[in-house]
Write a structure and sequence with these properties.
Blueprint (H helix, E strand, L loop, with lengths): L1 E7 L4 H12 L5 E8 L5 H8 L4 E3 L2 H4 L2 H15 L3 E4 L8 H6 L4 E5 L14 H10 L3 E8 L9 E8 L6 H25 L3 E4 L2 E4 L1
Parallel strand pairs: 1-2, 1-4, 2-3, 4-5
Antiparallel strand pairs: 5-6, 6-7, 8-9
Length: 207
């Protein structure tokens, strides 16, 4: 059974989608072994505790330096025995040593159709503000493996979401979450947990 470590920074809606998908069988052969947040006020920690899952905060401000924070995070991941690290609304840029340790074993959800509206400075509402500012008609979400770049790793799944007249960044963000993020993140985990995909030459293919 695939052991998941879920990293979060905020409310944990994607975490909840994973929990619900495990409970109702949309994700099989996987379980969450730990939830870690860099934000002690993250409601995601409470979601984990209510589900009976070990949860902890590793706060950069409590570690003395960014390097010590990364060391503590890596130690926590290794101690959990996680097979797959899931960045579910995690606002921490993973350092090289963690990315290398979990090469092709760390996934992220991005609220746009990569390669559009991604990379440095594209996160949270900024993504949806940029989408609306450019006037595109279709946006969506992407699940990808994490590599050394920002939103540059092999793409696992994408799902499109239409942009509607009168959308605000907030309404668009909510619809992208409901129609895309909460759908494809569980799907990607299930594919990985059941050995249905592989990475070859920087691309994700079916086994």
């Amino acid at each position: 059974m695939l052991k998941l470590a879920v990293l979060v920074s905020g409310g944990g809606t994607n975490l909840q989608a994973i929990l619900d998908s495990i409970a109702d069988g949309r994700i099989t052969n996987a379980r969450i072994v730990t939830v870690i947040s860099n934000n002690k006020n993250a409601y995601a920690l409470e979601r984990a505790r209510r589900a009976g899952i070990p949860a902890q905060c590793i706060c950069p401000g409590d570690c003395g330096s960014r390097e010590r924070f990364y060391d503590a995070l890596l130690e926590a991941l290794e101690s959990s025995g996680a097979d797959l690290v899931v960045l579910a609304g995690c606002m921490v840029v993973m350092p090289e040593k963690i990315v290398k340790k979990y090469e092709n074993r760390m996934i992220n959800i991005h609220p746009a159709l990569i390669p559009s509206f991604c990379g440095k400075d594209y996160y949270g509402l900024r993504v949806h503000e940029a989408v609306l500012g450019r006037g595109v008609k279709v946006t969506g979400a992407t699940v990808h493996f994490v590599d050394q770049g920002t939103d540059t790793g092999p793409i696992i799944l994408q799902k499109a979401v239409g942009v509607r007249p009168g959308d605000t960044p907030e309404t668009l963000q909510r619809r992208v979450m409901e129609e895309a993020e909460w759908v494809i993140m569980p799907q990607a985990i299930d594919l990985i947990a059941n050995g249905k995909i592989k990475v070859e030459n920087g691309l994700v293919t079916e086994r």
